[in-house]
Write a structure and sequence with these properties.
The structure is a single chain. The protein is of the alpha/beta class. It folds into 2 domains: 330 residues, Rossmann fold, CATH 3.40.50.970; 36 residues. The protein is built from 12 helices and 7 strands. The strands form 2 sheets. Strands 1-2-3-7-6 form a 5-stranded parallel β-sheet, sandwiched between helices. The protein has a two-stranded antiparallel ribbon with strand order 4-5. Helix 1 crosses helix 2, helix 1 packs antiparallel against helix 10 and helix 5 packs parallel to helix 6. The longest helix has 26 residues. 44% of the residues are buried. The structure holds thiamine diphosphate and magnesium ion. Thiamine diphosphate binds next to strand 2 and strand 4.
Amino acid sequence: MAEEPRDELPTNLPRLSLHVPEPKFRPGDAVDFTAVDIPPAGAARRPDTAALAADFPDLAYTLVRVLDDDHQAVGPWNPRLSPDVLRRILRNMVRLRAFDDRMFRAQRQGKTSFYMKALGEEAVAVAAAHALDYEDMCFPSYRQQGLLIVRDWPLVDMMNQIYSNTADRLQGKQLPIMYSAREAGFFSISGNLTTQYPQAVGWAMASAAKGDTRIAAVWCGEGSTAEGDFHNACTFAAVYRAPVVMNVVNNQWAISSFSGFAGAESTTFAARAVGYGIAGLRVDGNDALAVYAATQWAAERARTNQGPTLIEHFTYRAEGHSTSDDPSQYRSAGEPTAWPLGDPICRLKDHLVTIGEWDEERHAAQDKECAEEVRAAQKAAEANGILGHGLHQPLDSLFDGVFEEMPWHLREQRAQMMAEEAASGRPWARK
Ligand SMILES: Cc1ncc(C[n+]2csc(CCOP(=O)(O)OP(=O)(O)O)c2C)c(N)n1
Ligand SMILES: [Mg+2]
């Protein structure tokens, strides 16, 4: 119970008050992002990967940027990728956007209950997946479907999971979009925010304890850094110098709470690293080349036993949080277009065009090809059923897959459920 206010207060002391963060713009407000500090591309230094974390705390407070306003790749972080690799990164971002677009619409058509887009943040997962080794273990949040897309996981399999249909390998036991693909080094997504952080650090520690060569990479949103799990993971990673790349995707929003509620008014998210003695980088998350370079640098540190790196990807969530969200209720509609770091796909496309390795016609044709690839995958997935067309899995499979050997009380519950269903006459009980 709250304590009653005191009757008598000292007259010689100021009254205490709390600071409650408030976002700059609310629905209907004109948006002006000029206060967002954007250092020029190429300005941040690039320390040697063997440098001590304490030697470059400044990199946690700036922005590593490679693509400049003239679409050139500049500065010490330029990863100098071949045009072929640049085109592959671009294509995978386009594939991801096409996938998101199609599945978002599928939810609106009632074919699934839930979907989450990565609109505007495509570079974060896609460029990182290109910079990591296929063998490295990824611990994603729900917004890194780009990892699976780059690792060429079948789109049909992802859709089967979204539809919880007969071909869903997870048998409808996970919320749509909470994929799990061990063969692609993609750890099961958890709806409980930030559990993947200590799991990733633990996996990385195990890899090192076994004398293996594989590293881990993990992602969470900026809002999720407020979870205790984030901080426990940072402590373990710092103490044991775990071979892990820790990514914080600062897309400014955590459903309807803005980044200020996770601490963004006082400092950067990359600055969390400084307090733990971890290497920290703050990166332009809409610059695929900067994301690639930072990930490659952090991965090299991890591979050479220099320990963990925390990378803040400064970006913007251009869409609602999920299909269950309506951002027009809490933020200005002008924000996504006013975001000063632009669109990651356009920026990489403009770079390729500028260096003479791409053109608008090829880009338009690629858009069509990727949309067609996704459409064909959707058709194949829907042949296995969509959510809402009744049960796709045998009812008694509900209890499978938790324990190696089912305990007696679950066997009893299963038998009771089946008996009740048989008595109800509902069709699936007879399966
Ligand atoms: C432990 C826990 N708390 C709250 C939620 C509800 N929830 C789901 S997503 C979300 C916002 C997370 O925001 P952020 O970490 O910034 O990631 P983003 O969605 O922006 O990618 C919240 C509060 C949850 N799933 N788990
Ligand atoms: Mg967020």
